[in-house]
């Protein structure tokens, strides 16, 4: 049955008021228009909905049955509208974010703090995982957006990308270990020393592998770890040379220092990734605004 839902809207107001005149006033149409719509609905359903006489109007049994369901539907629609309005004005809802541990700690935490202060009723659901996995989940619609290390091959994967922050990758070691190296070591000088990197399933590691290949060298780490913090800890106890983002070195750090390499590691960037084909929810738009304003 293919009934125009506008007819149900007219029926709802007519049945609620038991008056075509008051229904017309509620809908800002003429009484004749209401009468015609009801007649059209009755013809399509092949039933009589109202019993009309000069003094009053009442629903038939079939009309009462239909009004029960239509009224329920309208109540659900109104509840949905209220929920949307609450989301817009009071900030209810949930935002699902994908980000690596490193990005969460050194970039996202401050924004989460600001967002929670502005929208305490919005639930923040963060999935910690490598950037490439986040990219796949965004493309598959499993989360609202991701904050990722941007690789060169992200275009054409069904996502929108907004670059929000640049950062520099650096080589680090201790003063004591630096005495084993030339004053300005090259990548080649490092190959005979223990190197400490992230695991191969991360964008950062893939980037480093490509950089070493560009220098006609092969990256063969002694230690492959799951987090930047662990790399800093391993370097701090003198186990070798690590590769991390410069922001990972605390300002008051006294043990670990950045090596002055002959080659400058290329700068990289962090970006927001969203699904091209999925509209952003209102809570997600709220969070995106906090990110963009804070740039």
UniProtKB/TrEMBL annotation:
PROSITE patterns: HTH_LYSR. This is LysR family transcriptional regulator. Belongs to the LysR transcriptional regulatory family. Keywords: DNA-binding, Transcription, Transcription regulation. The keyword DNA-binding applies. Residues 3-60 form the HTH lysR-type domain. It comes from the Bacteria. It comes from Desulfoluna limicola.
